[in-house]
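input
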Amino acid sequence: MAGSSFGTLFRVTTAGESHGPANVVIVDGCPPGLALDVADLERELARRKPGQSKLVTQRKESDAPEILSGVFEGRTTGTPIAILVRNEDARSRDYAKIADLYRPGHADHAYDAKYGVRDYRGGGRASARETVARVAAGAIAKKLLEEEVGARVLAWVAQVGEIVAEVPDPEAVTLEAVEATPVRCPDPVAAQAMIARIDEARRDQDSIGGVSTIVATGVPAGLGEPVFDKLKADLAKALFSLPAVLGVEYGIGFGCATMRGSDNNDIYVPGDPAALRTMTNRHGGMLGGISTGMPIVMRAAVKPTSSLSKKQPTVDRLGQPATIATEGRHDPCLLPRFVPMAEAMVALVLADHWLRWRAMGFAR
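output
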């Protein structure tokens, strides 16, 4: 279906379910000559895979990618790149008891309403398991952006529950600082409090939500279209397409609602017109839907995991009252593994808009 493809020139199509044999992604439009091997994909997939710490689901998947086409002698050929990641540790029996029950917070009823049939094993296509394909594709986009324009996309956990990280300069955050703790928060003090908060929710057979910050640096000014394909619109769509995302903002975001224009406007710093900057970055790196050359700063609110081992009231497919407790293995907090997913989706959008800009002959 068309809904499983994303992008215009850098286009990805994914297929697969949580408990199927594998997940697959086809990347179409990657230019030829880009150095690429399995290790490039493995680095990103290792950050997303389950079982990496007690803070995430204990499902054990190696998430070993197999490049089936589009790469020859370590470089892309310009033809479609097909990548397969096998599912190795699905336990479908965990879901047999709830096959006819609607899980609170899940898309079970919505899928029945749309298709009349659904894969109840782990959520099927609605499961975050399908994001393994996106992260594999995002690894290619990130490498393309780095080599072509020197751009970098980095995300981290900015909030878990009521605990908010102190990050004075988002542009200065490093991958090493993000990866220093299993919660992927560059503020070490907040990170320890977040870990304790997640562990508390896990012990209570519950879950906890939070916020991720995503920053793209080195993005050239000029990416994006003025109206319907605004860069901010495509980035929002990309992040909203991820499971569990309930809110997206960029720059000052909803903070603009209480400001006057004279306070909200970012004042330009005199200098080279080819590398203009502003004193502040309340516009989050985008004006008129087009990148300004300043860091693109976004935040995504991620809801608590819906699958709980705690008993909850619900209904069955006939609308009759029932009680449900999900026996599968689930993340007590989605944020630590959400970080590479968010990076991937932002990178896919930026790579696509870079190629579109280049194709129009505007790229410098």
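quick obs: The mean pLDDT is 91.
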